[in-house]
Design a protein that fits this description.
By secondary structure, the protein is mainly alpha-helical. The chain has helices spanning about 20-40, 45-70, 95-110, 115-140, 150-155, 160-165, 175-195, 205-220, 235-245, 265-285, 305, and strands spanning about 10, 15-20, 145-150, 170, 170-175, 230, 260-265. A three-stranded antiparallel sheet has the order 3-5-4. Strands 1-2 form a two-stranded antiparallel sheet. The protein has a two-stranded antiparallel sheet with strand order 6-7. InterPro entries: Lgt. Its main location: membrane.
């Protein structure tokens, strides 16, 4: 007998509180605690990170929705009010990251800090939040991959029954891509913890390492999913992406695409990986990364303005 997990945690009268929101909130809280703890090493006020979270979360929501709508504009151009119906679904994690970075950039600059220094501290928080947040997709039975067999989940992946059962959607079992990404992010979190104690790390490079690591995993995992945002690209681009993904053919098949032939997240992942390595090389070559991660962090603003 299959026991499905209820996406609703509890109800308060007509209001239902979903596990998705609780899990996302938990991820944000864990991320805040990680940033506050590391911030103490640099004598940064915990309230600074709380304010950063209060700015970053709304900016991330706006960015996530705007990114999704931009690439699904044909579905919204004749029903503009639907753009604001975020409770009906339709957000993208890359958009959330873009929105959060933009919001954080202006807040950090207003406080007189170097953006790269604060971004480095927040990098483990971001990947930890993503690691936890993917379990919200699990509860909603969304963001999964293509069809698989029950035997594959139980005997090949050796997954516990509660995951196997939740991956059964209308009688069909699917790839638990939420789990693949969550485990990849866990490995990335441990990598960032290790890197930030290395003497060779320069300011900004931990955040860039986060982007490269996440994008590398997302490139391969995205191809297994069946709900990707996509577009019709040139054949040379399709061939390039398929060649880069081909080592995974030994393990998984690519998921079917609902439309288009190029997954936007895969293309963006490639661009971010290339940009990450180029940026690290350029900043070091141009002597723009002389400050090391472990160096003190100071604000250019008066202390009273920073703490207000």
């Amino acid at each position: 007998m299959l026991l499905k997990l209820n996406p609703v945690a509890f109800s308060l009268g007509p209001i239902s509180v979903n596990w998705y929101g609780i899990i996302i909130g938990t991820g944000a809280l864990i991320g805040l605690l990680l940033a506050v703890q590391e911030g103490k090493r640099f004598k940064l006020n915990p309230d600074f990170f709380l304010d950063l979270l209060l700015i970053g979360v709304p900016a991330a929501i706006v960015g996530a929705r705007a990114y999704y709508v931009a690439f699904k504009w044909d579905d919204y151009k004749d029903n503009f009010l639907d753009v604001f119906k975020i409770w009906e679904g339709g957000i993208a994690i890359y958009g959330a990251l873009i929105g959060a970075v933009i919001g954080a950039f202006f807040y950090v600059r207003a406080k007189g800090y170097n953006f790269w220094r604060i971004a480095d501290i927040c990098a483990p928080s971001l990947i930890a939040g993503q690691m936890i947040g993917r379990w919200g997709n699990f509860m909603n039975q969304e963001a999964h991959g293509g069809p698989v067999t029950e035997e594959f989940l139980k005997n090949t992946l050796h997954l516990p029954n509660f995951i196997v059962n939740q991956m059964n959607i209308n009688g069909v079992y699917y790839h638990p891509t939420f789990l693949y990404e969550s485990l990849w992010n866990l490995a990335g979190l441990l990598l960032l913890f290790w890197l930030r104690r290395r003497p060779f790390m320069r300011a900004g490079e931990l955040f860039i390492s986060y982007l490269v690591w996440y994008s590398l995993g997302r490139f391969f995992i995205e191809a297994v999913r069946t709900d990707s945002l996509a577009f019709n690209g040139p054949e040379w681009l399709v061939s390039l992406i398929n060649i880069l993904w081909s080592p995974m053919n030994l393990l998984f098949e690519q998921g079917a695409m609902a439309y288009g032939n190029v997954r936007i997240s895969q293309l963006l992942a490639i661009l971010l990986i290339i940009a990450g390595f180029v940026l690290i090389f350029y900043r070091r070559k141009a002597k723009l990364a002389e400050v090391r991660y472990s160096d003190p962090i100071e604000s250019s603003k008066p202390q009273s303005a920073v703490q207000s």
